[in-house]
Amino acid sequence: ERERQRETDRESLSLGGRSLLVVLESLPSHPPCPAMAPPAYRLPQGAFFLGFDSSTQSLKATVVDEELRSVAFDTVHFDSELPHYMTKDGVHRGSPGSGRFTAPVLMWVEALELLLDKLARANFDFGRVKAVSGSAQQHGSVYWKNGTLTSVLQKLNHSQPLHLQLRNAFSKRDSPVWMDSSTTEQCKAMEEAVGGAAAMATLTGSRAYERFTGPQIRKIFETEKEVYDNTERISLVSSFMASLLVGSYASIDHSDGAGMNLMNLKLRSWSPEALKATAPGLEEKLGELALPHAVAGKLNAFYAERYKFSPDCLVIQWSGDNPNSLAGLALNRPGDLAISLGTSDCVFGITLDPHPGLEGNVFPNPVDPNCYMLMLCYKNGSLAREEVRDRCANGSWEEFNKILSQTPPLNDGKIGFYYKETEILPFLPAGMHHYILDKLDSGSVHEVPNFDLKAEVRAIVEGQFLSMRAHCERQGMPSPPERVVATGGASANEQLLTLIGTIFGCPVYTTQRTDSASLGAAFRAAHGWLCQNSGTFIPISYLYEERPDDSAVHCQLSAPAGAKDLHVKYGFIASKRVELENQLLHKFSAGPVKGP
C-alpha cells in the first residue's frame, strides 16, 4: 500500500512528463505571503539586539538574537551592589509625611557601567549588537546643568569612568521619581489652568497626577528656582539613559512623553497650554519629541572603545517601562489586551479610539504610531484575593478553585467590592461592600452585610475582572478584545484564566517572561533597526512571524473565549458595577467617575 502511494505521488509530481521545477519556473512571480515577513525585512543572521530596563530598584539587560530568542540577561541591584548611594528600594525618602521620593542620578550612571562590565566579564560579544534601546521608570526627571552638553557629554573619554566624568553635570543631583506624592497643589493649579481635571485628561491623556513630570517641574520652579534657571535640558529617566549612550541630548519619545501632563495626546507635540501652566521657557529645556521607533543616534565612541561595540551600533529611542512591557508581551494590534495579576493588578490595551477620562492613562502606542495604549492600575490585587482565600477557603488555592468551579457564573447577581487597602481605581478607602441584583438582566440592587463563603470566593474575582472590563471599555477598548495575554503570578491559575475568557469574551494566552520591560526594549531595538534599515515604518508584527518555538515572542493558549450569551450578561453586570462605584464615590465624597 505504501509503495502504491509513493508511485501515485511520483505521478502527481511528474505532471505529464514535465518536472515540478520547470512548471514552477514557468509560473508568474508573486509577492511573498503577507503572513510572513518579506526577506528584506528579516533581521541579519548572527545579530544581537540589546534592551535595558532602568527600573526603580535595578538596571537589567536582555539580549535577543535575530530569531528573537533570549540569549543573555544580567542585572545590577542598586541597594546591594551600589550601597554607597545609601538607597532603600532604590530611592531616598523625604521626612515622614513629606511625600518626597528621589533617586541619585549618578547611581543610574554607575549602574550602566557596572552592568556592561558584568556582560564583558561573561565574554559577551558586544560587536554583534546591531541596536540598543531601553525602558525606564516613568515620570522621573533629570536636570542637566547649563553648559554640560558641550563641556562634558560630547567629550566622553573612554579611559575614565563615566560616572566620574558626569559628577558635576547636574543642577539637581537627586531626581524626583514616580513614588513622589508631594505635588498636590501643583496638580490642582495645572488642572485649573487648562480648564479642569477632565480637560487635562482630554488634552494630555491623563488628569494631573502627583507623580507626573509636569507637576514636579512646576514645584522645582516654584521652590528651587535657582535649579530651574541653571538647567539647560530636562530629561525623563528614559531619555537621560539614551543620552548617556549617544553622548548628546536624546529626545523624549511620544509614549513616555505622555506621562508628563505636558504633551498634546492627539497632536503628539508639546501643549502650549500645559507648558504655560508649568513653568516659563520650558519647551526649550525639554527639546523636541520623537517617535518611539526613531533612531536617537549612533552609540557614542566611548562604548565602542571601552566595550568593543560596533561603531555602527544604533541607539533606538528609549521609552517608559509600561510601554516597553506592552512591547515585551508582544501586543501588536488594536484590541490586544494584557492583564498582569500581581500584588497590584495592571491592564494594558491597544486601541484606535481612546477615550481619556479621570481614571487610568492613555499613551501613544510605543510600537505603532497609528494607535494608542491604555493603562489601568489597581492597588488591591493578589493581597485582596489572598485575604478572601484565607477567610473563605482555609488558605488553600486548591479549595478556592474548587469553590469557583462549583459556583454558577454571574454568582446569582452578587456584586462585591474588596479593598484591603485604599484603592486607586476607583479612589475608595479600604473596606468591603456587598450588593445583590434582583434580576440578572434588569431590576434594582440592594446592599447586604455579606455573602455566604462560596459566593465571596466568586465575587472577588468576578468583581476584579468586571471592573477591568468596564474601565477598559470606557477608555475605548473594543468589546470583546481580540485576545487577552495574562502574566504575573496568578496567571498560573487556570480557573482565573477561564473566568477572564468568559467575562471578556475572548481567548486568553499566557507567557512566562520574567522581565517584560527589558525584553520589550530588546524587541524595540530590533524593530527600530528594521525601520531604519528599510527607510520606512515597518509593522512590528513582521518581527513576530515564523519565529521558532523557543522565541521569546510566543504565548500559549490557556483558555478559550467564553459563551457569547455569558459575555453579554456579564456586560450588564459590569455596567451595574460602575453605577455602584459611583454611589460609593458619592458616599465617600470623591464624586462620580466621569468621562471627559
Task: Describe the structure in brief.
38% of the residues lie in helices and 21% in strands. By secondary structure, the chain is α+β, with helices and mostly antiparallel strands.
Write the layout of secondary structure elements.
Elements (H helix, E strand, L loop, with lengths): L1 H13 L5 H7 L21 E7 L3 E8 L4 E8 H4 L10 E2 L7 E4 H17 L7 E8 L4 E5 L2 H4 L10 H4 L4 E3 L1 E3 L7 H11 L2 H8 L8 H11 L1 H5 L1 E6 H10 L5 E2 H4 L5 E2 L4 E2 L1 H5 L5 H5 L2 E2 L4 E4 L2 H7 L6 E3 L2 E2 H8 L7 E6 L3 E7 L9 E4 L7 E7 L3 H11 L4 H10 L7 E6 L3 E2 L2 E2 L2 E7 L7 E4 L4 H22 L8 E5 L6 H11 L3 E3 L5 H19 L6 H4 L11 E4 L4 H24 L9
Parallel strand pairs: 1-6, 6-16, 6-17, 11-14, 18-27, 27-28
Antiparallel strand pairs: 1-2, 2-3, 4-5, 5-9, 7-8, 7-10, 12-13, 15-16, 18-19, 19-21, 20-21, 22-25, 23-24, 25-26, 28-29
Helix pairs in contact: 7-8, 7-9, 16-21, 17-19, 19-20, 19-23
Major sheet details: 7 strands, mixed
Average predicted confidence as pLDDT: 90
Radius of gyration: 26 Å
Distance between the termini: 72 Å
The proportion of residues in beta strands is: 15-25%
**Backbone structural class:** alpha+beta
Helical percent range?
25-40%
Number of strands: 29
Any overview of this molecule?
The protein has 23 helices and 29 strands. It is α+β, with helices and mostly antiparallel strands and 596 residues long. The strands form eight sheets. Strands 1, 2, 3, 6, 15, 16 and 17 form a seven-stranded mixed β-sheet that branches. The N and C termini lie far apart (72 Å). The N terminus and C terminus are likely disordered.
